[in-house]
Amino acid sequence: MSEGNYILKGGLYAVALIGVTAGTLFGLSMVSRMNRPPIISVQRGYRGTGLDQLYTPAALAALQAANKMPGVLPEPGPNGPKAGAVYKNVRVLGGLSVGQFTRLMVTFTGWVAPKQGCAYCHNVANMADDTNYTKRVARRMIQMTQNINANWQQHVALTGVTCYTCHRGNPVPQYIWFHDPGGPAAGGYSESHMGMGHPTGAAGDSSLPYDPFSPFLEAAYNIRVQSEQALPGADNHSIKETEWTYSLMMNMSQSLGVNCDYCHNTRDLGVWSDSSPARVTAWYGIRMVRDINTTYLDSLQDVFPPNRLGPTGDNPKAYCMTCHQGVYKPLFGVSVLKKFPELAKPVPATGTGPS
């Protein structure tokens, strides 16, 4: 064999060795990132139905730490003078006793503005003053919370929600969304990207539409994947509609920390009779979020200052992640209404006090 062939073979062996070494290192790197057993199984349905949620101990510990309900002040009871008869300008909670009202105000501070204190919403020199936009927003958010707990039990059941469900000690909830204009695009036909080709976390960093919220969680477009007709006709479902739907589904999966089979039978995603009960709960949840956005948050468009608005000038809005924050039941299903019945439904305005 010639010297040239030896050199060639040696080079090939070296390339092969480098390839094997690189592949081994890549494999070890990937393995080091994988979640290893043991696996914890959390039963979320009847035994024998396979309705279980799987976690690793590390992931479960992190989620539990982030989803703890804070301590609760003792309940003072409904007896005594009403807040609306004692304090000025109490428009939503005037029917509570002074003790109930004070406890709730202190609790709100811990839930929403623990660092800023009462001054985050109030003019502390005149607590009845409505100058601060945050006070007007907070009043509307209390009404929204009462509406959710009273009229959307198909989704929240008797577990309910409180301000803490979304805020978690932050003045502005960590997970909100605005209308997304997308990245800069060239003019002409290439400008019509149909909301795709700009990967964001909203759709799992995929190339699916990056704003699945506007059509489904603010507007009431139908969420559809499969056409019911084989040939064109009155049924106008399209591939583009499917892409928007899958973008929303991926976001819901991320928001709840679950896979598709949490709601669907993946053998046939569209069949309701084969789906788990969670799909019905999610159906109501989508409509509940639309109600939150259109009835309550959109009504605050003119109340929020410019620095609280999105890139197109719209108000902040909610989606599944706002409450769930990576858990299939917010705060792992802790019943929050037992300790705060004042938020279970609108409070009768018995005595509004001097204005």
Brief account:
By secondary structure, this protein is mainly α. Helices cover 39% and strands 2% of the residues. It has eleven helices and two strands, in the order αββαααααααααα.
User: Reading side by side through the largest sheet, how are the strands ordered?
Assistant: 1-2
How many extended strands?
A: 2
Strand residues, percent = under 5%
Basic shape: globular
Using the coordinates above, name the CATH class of the largest domain: Mainly Alpha
CATH topology of the largest domain: Photosynthetic Reaction Center, subunit C, domain 2
> What is the number of helical segments per DSSP (H or I, 4+ residues)?
11
Question: Which structural class matches the secondary elements?
Answer: mainly alpha
Distance between the termini: 104 Å
Would you identify the CATH architecture of the largest domain? Orthogonal Bundle
